[in-house]
Write the structure tokens for this entry.
Amino acid sequence: MVLPVAVEIAPPDSPKENVAVLLAACTRAKRGGECTLAADVGGSGTSAVAIVTWQGQARALVEVGLRREGHSEWRTRTLEFDPNRDDLLERWRAVGFVVGTLANEEAPSTESETQRTPNSAEAAPKTTPVEKARQRESEQPKAADGEEGNGPASSDGAATEYEPAFGRARGRLDVGASLGPAFDEVRFGGLVRGEVQLPDPLRAQITLRYLERPSGVEELRAQWITMSAGLGVGFGGERVEFGVALDGRAEYFAARAERRSAAEADTRWLGGIGAGTTLAWMPSATFGFFAGGDLALMFGSTNVRVESRSLGTDGMLRYAGEAGIRFRLR
């Protein structure tokens, strides 16, 4: 029994005509079996699973997973199109050919474009993925009875050089340190941030921060515990990720000040809004490092006093630098 290739397309509400063109091209490129939407696959199993993520109209990320010798093997390819040269349906057809080619069981070729080209003077003008797909289509072997062959003899350019895919992240977990000014001194502490992947490029975030300003002048010690929840966007690839987020936050503040024999303590809750940026480098599929910044506008300020003398004000505007480690959740 020949098992199909299950194809998942994002966004899921893509035009049916475009989806049909992609599946037809995929079936043609796949040597044996057909390509069908993942939602239409029955309980008989699949030969491969493909995830096609359209990042706008001019860029598509293709991820294909196969089970080989008892373990999963992922292959990935990113296709860039020229909207001024490539017809929309032809873009979908090109993606379909790449999906079908990646879903074939044969070991991928590692021959590069440069190795196949004798010299730059003889090199042909650079072609787009759509033009390459047309070339592959014209190279389809024909059966003796006039029927089309099952797939292209070879592929080139964006579709030949396979590499293991990290796969689509379901979320991220950041654990790190934070450092910023407070009461003419420095406050520092740690943070834990959880992130859930929504339809690209959206992400939902929840962050817990604890910062402290140790005792210094006038023996003033202050603590901040902040919980925030928000929505962000993320960009980048497998190695580098960049994110921007906006959030709402609630903050608990506690301060204790001592001067000679007098001591005063104060606590309060404040709400606010915040914005943050992160830049992450992921040397592996699940582990990496991040750095970024946090800016907050709180709905109020706090003046700390001892014996009617002000020791400083915790202002409405806050900012801090952040860095730590990131875990990508699969």
